[in-house]
Amino acid sequence: MSKGLAQIMKQAQMMQQKMGKLQEQAAERTAEVTTGGGAVTAVVNGKNQVLSLVIKKEAVDPEDVEMLQDLVMTAINEALKKVHQEMSEEMSKITGGLSIPGLF
């Protein structure tokens, strides 16, 4: 194997190790989003797990359940979007901007 190819293989292995470490750290990365002027707060991690969901009492209106459902969905979806964006930015640093499908 030529020196150039050996160097490329070594760099690829190092990149793979860094990506693996970042994926392991995904559970530790969190994002928090509040919707409805503070009515609903969702916290998620990089493993797509909802860690907490807080709904203030005043947000609960039996006559308007749909609005509460919308607030909850928006909070969770925005938090997931936020944590994935952060993970993608970190992955981009490792890969030098190379997009690798299926990572983040």
Shape: rod-shaped
Secondary-structure element pattern, one letter each: HEEEH
Summarize model confidence as the mean pLDDT.
Answer: 86
Poorly predicted regions are none
Here the CATH topology equals Ybab, Chain: A
Query: Gyration radius, to the nearest Å?
Result: 20 Å
Q: Name the CATH homologous superfamily.
A: Nucleoid-associated protein YbaB-like domain
CATH architecture: 2-Layer Sandwich
The first-to-last residue Cα distance is 33 Å
By CATH reckoning, the class would read: Alpha Beta
Number of strands: 3
Helix content: 40-55%
- Give me the secondary-structure category: alpha+beta
Assess the beta-strand content as a share of residues: 15-25%
Please tell me the total number of domains.
1
* Main β-sheet, spatial strand arrangement: 1-2-3
Major sheet: size, sense and barrel closure? Answer: 3 strands, antiparallel
> Please, how many helices?
2
Structure description:
It is found in: Cytoplasm, Nucleoid. With 104 residues, the chain is α+β, with helices and mostly antiparallel strands. The protein has a single domain, classed as Ybab, Chain: A. 52% of the residues lie in helices and 17% in strands. It has 2 helices and 3 strands, in the order H-E-E-E-H. The longest helix is centred in the C-terminal third of the chain and has 31 residues. It starts with a helix and ends in a 9-residue tail after the last helix. The mean pLDDT is 86.
